[in-house]
Amino acid sequence: MEKANPTIFDVAREAGVARATVDRVIYHRGGVSRKTGEKVEAVIERLGYKANPIASSLASRKKANFACLIPRFERGEYWDVACQGFLDGARSIHSHDIGLQMHLYDSDDVASFKAETEKILKEKPDGVITNVVFAEALREFALRLQEAGIPLAFVDQKLDGVDYTLYYGTNPHEAGRLGAYLLTHRMDVKELAMVRLIRDPRQLADPNRIRREGFLGYISEHFPHCKVHTVFIHPDAPEETEQILDAFFRAHPLVRHITMANSRIHLMAPYLEAHPDPLRHVVGFDDLQQNLDALRKGLVEYLVTRNIPMQSHYTVSRFAEAVLSGSAPATRDNYMHMDILHQLNAHDYEMRI
Questions:
Q1: Domain spans in the chain, listed from the N-terminal domain onward
Q2: What class does CATH assign to 172-305?
């Protein structure tokens, strides 16, 4: 980078680490691996960066408040795991006072989503982090944020056609295609079942649409004669789910390829365990603990996932750095690599930042 007076943000971008990591290396605060420390020191030397203790002290008094607008969650669910990363990302910027206000909405109720957006607009945070569940309502909210001069970051999934500063997540379309490949790559599949969740009655919420489209697109391309059955279950009614699945598989005994495009393949685990079939193939997404339990039992063959807490950690830390510095991030769209989990590599697998 050719720059007369390189900043700590320049060093962070060049080294591919968070600004807080550079700060730890400069002031010998620990918590950085030897390899990363050496890489940061090499970039510091190459750029000719000089730490300014006075500027660092002034920067430490900066405060910024960010709003996280995400679905409500129970312990162990996807957004519970993601929140661990949000909080860690805020703590990593220890030379700044980063406040996170969690705005949780009912993912089955667009009115709940809109109510939280009104609260955020009244609070006027320094930035907003959100995902995509109610696309049209989110589009309206994004326009109002733009009018108010409040930057927006996406995590997990982004909404094209709106102004945003940063995105961290997988490419959901490619994740869906990968799931379809893992489910079908060993045979000519004639039928398969895609299990979906019953969501809001107005059908405005569809957070897994792009992943599902990627999955179905792959099937249509490679198995044009394959019949895809859609089965709807309620996420909070296990007895009803058992009955629905039992009725479906009694009516379609040859369907042995099963998937769910959301993060809740574990909802099928009780049925799969009660009705074992050595010819069955099941692919799910996201390494929630319940999904990992199903994988390790052999009820699910593959999980397509990514480092969920790292995804949210970087969303907060890189977004905050961009807002505080007043400059655009080095990369706007940041795609997480995808992990493929199987019984053979899942026993010691753990998401770490």
A1: 8-57, 63-169+308-337, 172-305
A2: alpha beta
Burial group, residue 53, by CB count within 10 angstroms (0-12, 13-18, 19+): exposed
Spatial CB neighbours of 226, under 8 Å, sequence gap ≥ 6: 184, 189, 190, 191, 192, 219
Amino acid at 274: A
CB–CB of 310/336 below 8 Å? yes
pTM (two decimals) = 0.77
Q: What is the CATH architecture of 8-57?
A: Orthogonal Bundle (1.10)
pLDDT (tens digit, 9 = 90+) per residue, 222-236?
A: 999 999 999 999 988
Identical fold for domains 63-169+308-337 and 172-305, yes or no, is yes
CA distance 276 to 294: 13
Give the Cα separation of 232 and 264 in Å (integer): 13
Task: Round to whole Å and give the CA distance between 110 and 122.
Answer: 19
Return the number of other C-beta atoms located less than 10 Å from residue 138's C-beta: 22
